[in-house]
Amino acid sequence: MTALNVRSGADRVAGSAAAAAGRSAPALTALVRTVTAIGRAVLVAIPVMLVSTFLTFMLGGLTKQDPAAVLLGDNATPVALARMRQALGLDKPLLERYVQWVWNALHGNLGVSWFSKIPVAQSISQRLPVSLSVAVGALLIAVVLGGVFGILAAVWQGGWLDRCVTLVTSVLATIPPFIVAIALIVIFAVTVRWFPSGGWASPSQGLARWASFLVLPSVSLSLDAAASLARQLRTGLAGALHENYIVGAQVRGLPRRRIVLVHALRNGAGPAVAQLGLHVPQIIGGAVIVETVFALPGIGNLTMTSALQGDVPVVQGALLVAIGLVVTSNVIVNVLLVKLRPAARREI
Amino acid sequence: MSKTFRAAIVTGVAVLALAGCAAQAAVGNSASSSSSSSSSASSGGAIPPASERGNTLTWGWSLPSTWDPVTSAVGNDVSALTLVYEGLTEESPQGEAVPGLAKSWTYAKNGRAITFHLRPGLTFSDGTKLDATAVKESLERGITEKDSEVAPQMADIGSITVDSPTDVTLNLTQVDYQIPLLMSGKTGMIVSPTAVAKEGVTKLATQPVGAGPFILKSYVPSSQATLVKNPHFWDASKILVQNFILKPTPEPSVAVAGLDSGQFDIEDLTASQVSGVEAAGFPVETTNVLPVRVIDVDNKVKPFNDPLVDQAISTAINREALIKTANFGYGQPDWQPFPKGYVAYNASLSNLYPHSVSKAKQLLTQAGYPNGINVQLALDTADDPVGELIQQQLDAAGIHTSLVVETPGQNNYITLKYPFALDQFNARQSPVQALQVLFGPQGLMNLGKSTPPTLAAAVAAADGYALTDPRYPAAIQAAVKIAVMNMPNIFLFTVTRFEAHSPNVHGLQHWVDIQRFEGVWVSKS
């Protein structure tokens, strides 16, 4: 999901069966396009998954991590160590272990954590809601803040608001989420005590309580994305507002609000949406640190602890989930882009 | 040893030795005096009838890495596991073996077999009968399970035989009078054979079935364990709360708020939090627990191969200052692997190498290093203040250290990558096993793997006395002295466990190892 790939419409239509069908049945075309986008994403995801899980497997072997020895600690007698390595399957060659893992994963068996002995799928399904809540919260905040300020800045180009947005977003883009997290804790949890400083409550314990634990982590993860979203949207929209068709619309006496929010936004939002897609992996990656700062029992926290211990089954499982999330968000962004501007459609 | 482990173990250990000294609630038939530091905190006088007591106790500690005692790799897990499992024996607050599931035990005359006599009519929380056969199956799983963490501790057990429904005999491959102590920890926790057979071992990680004081009702890893009282626990009359909630220790910044709001009744603290929590009006129990901070030294590596150098390092370290600065004044300076008050503690070693920079320099000169030495000190975590303080102290005596953080995911006891490493010895229920791990020829914490011949003989002698033999304390203490005088390990200070609690909590005792909750009750607020 990178920068836009705008091509001439004619060129594209000529080569595309979907587009041909589209002339007769627009709904069908949309469906075919969506399915194609998903299919392509899955095709891309398979090699990505294989390469990244293989690399993780290799890293475990190359860094000379010794989970059996760590597990046994000061009980690691030679006999116990040999038995433990056998129990974890570490006595087999790396490649054989990897093939076995892929085979099991294909059958839905992600294995059991070497350290907690809890099935990986169970650990992940318990922690995924936490990470997803924070990530979705962060995305929502980023879209609302970035959208509103991006549009305002574009509409009042060169005005004081535009300058303020540019200044603030420049500053925010340079501050990493964990600094924001600590600052937010100091202000909102310690000084004014509006929100808890960390921890987690599930929605079943009360929606307000759940939300109160979500606010600070989501905000600290969102600011970076909100800032770049605002800047991209401002640039894209400002460019679109100078196009001839906007002048034409003005001449025809269309209301200003409609011109900005419908005509210009649809064409100017592409880069911003693409940018948002780029931020999803960053938000998932940033969650590791933010989950640590806020003591959230999420996937990031699980992955970090497991990686430090060399708990390969858990790391691999978490990796699959992360790749799945990134691929899904890419699909959503692709579909959105096509919907916004058919000219943005591209082959992978 | 990895950082995560260390952190968990430090906390764990800290907890193990916990709470109050209320003598009237002493478990089993152990002596009543409190072994360790702080004074009695929460002995609440007479226990009111159930209708006037609170129902629920919430403990801020750490959730276990797994609920299976056989595969649990974190030393600290033992206190949480003790909530749901009962061992053949229990540990008294002072760390002595007292009756648990077994009401008594007898050794064969030659010391090569021990028979545990179970209480009659015991059941697991799933209703399965807890008899000699169940005990045999449970212990054998600890020996045979491929990923067993307790198997190394059970190396002396040759076979297990069922003599009668209530008598089970462990046949030993050598004389070992420490078995009753071992059976009070994870090694001796008895797991329901039905649960193992029906559900499989994997389920035990989240669904334990034992015969302990409580039954696990629901469990969300990293979040909360909810337990209810087990009415069939053999000592159920001493369990004075119906519901027990175990949660991870709260963030330091909300420790006081946690107690204030009633989210926690008892909380594990770090030394830095104590004064703040006390200032807020909450009692804090402090206990010198069994673990001690230590520097592991490989005496096969130059310059540590010279005992004078090791002695110089020990002399150059100002333990009082370490305690005062890095540990907020909590802990005892120590030159041996046990805290004061424990059976193996040898009083003649209480101030073995007093701090003296000039003496340290003199020892170095004697060893042939008049211009000092340059060495590397390995730390588990970059933020351990003890490491930097030791660096400063050694520097004054001409021992120049550079600090390096150990690679995570590796075990220095195996790789032997760092010959001079700041560490913590997390104790064993058996002092003989402690000596073997620290100093034995195969001992993991004996990095140089060299042992003076006199030590093996002294340890064997101590192991040859029954725990109740009046000659046993002198024998084990003699072995400790030989070890400390001949081995390079540099012991620093004892670990302290801090437990803050609401004024409504009564009857906490100071446990030197495994934390238990017999006799603990909550008054209605």
List the topology elements:
The complex is a heterodimer of chains A (348) and B (525).
Chain A: H1 9-15, H2 17-24, H3 26-62, H4 67-72, H5 78-88, H6 94-106, H7 120-155, H8 160-174, H9 177-191, H10 207-241, H11 244-251, H12 256-268, H13 270-293, H14 299-309, H15 312-340
Chain B: H1 3-16, E1 56-61, H2 77-84, E2 89-91, E3 97-99, E4 102-107, E5 113-118, H3 132-144, E6 157-164, E7 167-172, H4 179-182, H5 193-199, H6 201-204, E8 214-220, E9 224-229, E10 243-248, H7 255-260, E11 266-269, H8 274-279, E12 284-297, H9 307-316, H10 319-326, H11 357-366, E13 373-379, H12 385-396, E14 399-405, H13 412-415, E15 420-425, H14 431-439, H15 453-463, H16 472-486, E16 490-501, E17 505-506, E18 521-522
Parallel strand pairs in B: 1-10, 1-11, 13-14
Antiparallel strand pairs in B: 2-3, 4-5, 5-7, 6-7, 8-9, 9-10, 11-16, 12-15, 12-16, 17-18
Note down, in words, how this protein is organized.
The complex is a heterodimer of chains A (348) and B (525). Chain A has 348 residues and is mostly helical. Chain A has 15 helices and no strands. In chain A, α8 packs across α10 and α10 packs across α12. Chain B has 525 residues and is of the alpha+beta class. Chain B contains 16 helices and 18 strands. In chain B, the strands form five sheets. An eight-stranded mixed β-sheet of chain B has the order 8-9-10-1-11-16-12-15, with helices on both faces. The N terminus of chain B is likely disordered. The interface between A and B is large, with 49 and 47 residues.
